[in-house]
Specification:
- The protein is an all-beta fold.
- Helix content is about 0%, strand content about 45%.
- It has no helices and 45 strands.
- The strands form 14 sheets. The chain has a five-stranded mixed sheet with strand order 2-1-38-39-40, with no helix packed on it. Strands 4-7-6-5 form a four-stranded antiparallel sheet, with no helix packed on it.
- The protein is elongated and about 85 Å long.
- The model is unreliable at about 1-35 (pLDDT under 50).
Length: about 575
């Protein structure tokens, strides 16, 4: 595992510590480039794609918390929120020609004019209306779907509150479709727009109701692109959705999010307006070269003429996390609320995710440099610096961000909700934070420790003599408590790596998380989740066992080149792979 010392990998249920020893040259985490390095791959409830997955895209589409990309070979990729398997693109016999991302489901139009649907199907929004043939367009609403037939008819299926699946007569002569939260929209051959569903001001299409060439539906507003390049907006205006920036002309495409709007200009620039509470209207620079755009709930994705993908806005499910080629990751941590913290090879940190209410987890204290380790504690973060000091930020209700003095000489960190452990260079453990935990009773003698970890119910530590010590709960120690070189704490079970490359597991085994698969050898690192376990082999592959909740055991292919994995414990895994 190049770039860090394997024995210093500590997973304490929801955190990851890495102490890099040999890093590549510093890079700008947000810039492009072609350097070799390490990148992130995520699976389970949240999907993060390898950088190569974004190559050869010809179209993009954004949903509520996930994005789709169409490739030139007719295949598709998906990333972001995966709670309904909407990022698991099904195999198709015919190539895909168009994609539409809805709330939590997707539609794909194939070359043979059928529609393939996948993801959330609680309201039958994936049960394509029969006969599934002769479609030329598809639109995915929040919980319903529309399909346009070659004869100009619209077919609708899924949740039908406000009769949003009841296309008004005469159901003929349609050339384009759009779907919002409670409304369907159809563009007629004569350039007029027909609206059905909830009567919330959207029925009142501004006059003249003619000359429209494209439409886009938000959750309560609609955009119509006119033949003269101007945009007309109607419906909800609570967030300034009607206020198209001037000059209102020269637009070639439109897209509508929940409360915001996008317009693509003929010069390849993007104009955004409306609700901007998640930065969804802050178009990334350089604002040039855009070929197509799509707006999700609070996020956007755009495809540039040079083939690069840009996403911005709300990033709670990593849907806006488009990896550049030189981001050079050396460590990553994730918690159950999908807050992420990443360490770059240049010693800087990046943070993204859902946030923690009023707590600012993403405003990394300056100077953002010289970090060598990170830890996530649900609502607070820790960063270890090269000088042995610790930086903490986020919630401090229990003093978990008040680093004990002297703030020096630290070599490893572990974080939990309201509580932290840190290891000193002399082998002593320091504990601070929520006094309600029984984690302060560090076993004596408090010396000779080389690794630490925290779980929901206990702490564990590894001694320099190769034995494990536990406290604060009833997890105990392994029956074979010798020759151990690395440990990992799951929710109620533990993993220990032995010097001979075998793994010892103990504790709760309800889901087989302690049943190490054969052959139990050639392992180089271990990671314990809530109810599952991971083991790294010397060839960079990962072996997984235990609970398969949210498909956390389905390691992305190719299963090679992994350096480490961080987990939120039960739903999401994020691994670092080498190029």
């Amino acid at each position: 595992m190049p770039g860090y010392l394997a024995p210093t990998v500590i997973i304490a249920c929801l955190m990851l510590i890495l102490l890099p020893t040999g890093c590549s040259s510093p890079t700008d985490p947000g810039s492009g480039g072609g350097q070799s390095g390490n990148y992130l791959v995520g699976w389970g409830r949240q999907v993060i794609l390898e950088p190569s997955a974004y190559r050869d895209l010809i179209a993009v589409s954004a949903g509520s918390g996930h994005c789709l990309g169409l490739k030139s070979d007719g295949s598709a990729v998906a990333w972001g929120y995966n709670g309904y398997n909407q990022c698991q693109v099904p195999d198709v016999s015919a190539g895909i020609v168009a994609l539409a991302a809805g709330g939590y489901h997707n539609l794909a139009l194939t070359e043979d004019r059928t529609i393939m649907a996948w993801g959330d199907n609680r309201d039958s929004q994936c049960d394509v209306s029969m006969p599934n043939a002769d479609f030329i367009a598809a639109a995915a609403g929040y919980d319903f779907s529309l399909g346009l037939k070659i004869d100009g008819r619209i077919v609708a299926w899924g949740e039908n509150s406000y009769c949003k699946c009841d296309v008004p007569a005469p159901n003929t002569g349609f050339t384009a479709i759009a779907a919002g939260e409670y409304n369907g929209f159809g563009l007629k051959e004569d350039g007029s727009v027909i609206v059905w569903g909830r009567d919330n001001g959207l029925y009142d299409v501004p006059e003249p109701n003619s000359g429209f060439t494209a439409i886009a539906a938000g959750w309560g507003h609609c955009l119509g692109l006119r033949s003269n390049g101007a945009i007309t907006v109607w419906g909800n205006n609570a967030y300034g959705q009607w206020a198209v920036p001037v000059p209102n002309g020269d637009f070639v495409a439109v897209a509508a999010g929940r409360y915001h709007s996008l317009g693509l200009k003929s010069d390849g620039s993007v104009v955004a307006w409306g609700g901007n509470d998640e930065g969804q209207c802050d178009v990334p620079q350089p604002n040039t070269g855009f070929l197509s755009i799509s707006a999700g709930g609070y996020c956007n994705v755009g495809l540039k003429r040079d083939g690069t993908v840009v996403a911005w806005g709300y990033n709670g499910s990593s849907q806006c996390f488009i990896q550049q080629s030189n981001m050079e990751f050396t460590a990553v941590a994730v918690d159950r609320d999908y807050n992420h913290l990443a360490l770059h090879a240049d010693g800087s940190l990046s943070a993204w995710g859902r946030g923690a209410g009023s707590v600012d987890l993403y405003n990394i204290p300056e100077p953002n440099m010289d970090f060598v380790g990170i830890a996530h504690g649900y609502d607070h973060n820790l960063g270890l610096k090269t000088d042995g000091s610790i930086v903490a930020w986020g919630d401090n209700a229990y003093g978990q961000c008040d680093i004990p003095e002297p703030n020096t000489g630290y070599v490893a960190i572990a974080a939990h909700r309201g509580f932290n452990l840190a290891l000193k260079a002399d082998g002593a453990i320091v504990a601070w934070g929520d006094p309600s935990y029984a984690y302060f009773a560090i076993p004596e003698p408090n010396t000779g420790y080389v690794q630490v970890g925290i779980s929901d119910y206990y702490c564990i530590a590894l001694k320099s003599n190769g034995t494990v010590v536990s406290w604060g709960g009833a997890i105990g120690v392994p029956a074979s408590n010798t020759n151990i070189i690395a440990i990992s704490a799951g929710r109620a079970h533990c993993l220990a790596l032995k010097s001979d490359g075998s793994i010892v597991a103990w504790g709760n085994n309800r889901y087989g998380q302690c049943d190490v698969p054969s052959p139990n050898n050639d392992f180089t690192a271990v990671v314990a989740g809530n109810y599952f376990s991971l083991g790294f082999r010397s060839d960079g592959s990962v072996v997984a066992w235990g609970s398969a909740y949210y498909d956390v055991l389905d390691i992305p292919e190719p299963n090679i080149g992994f350096e480490t994995v961080a987990t939120d414990g039960s739903e999401t895994c994020i691994g670092i792979k080498s190029r």
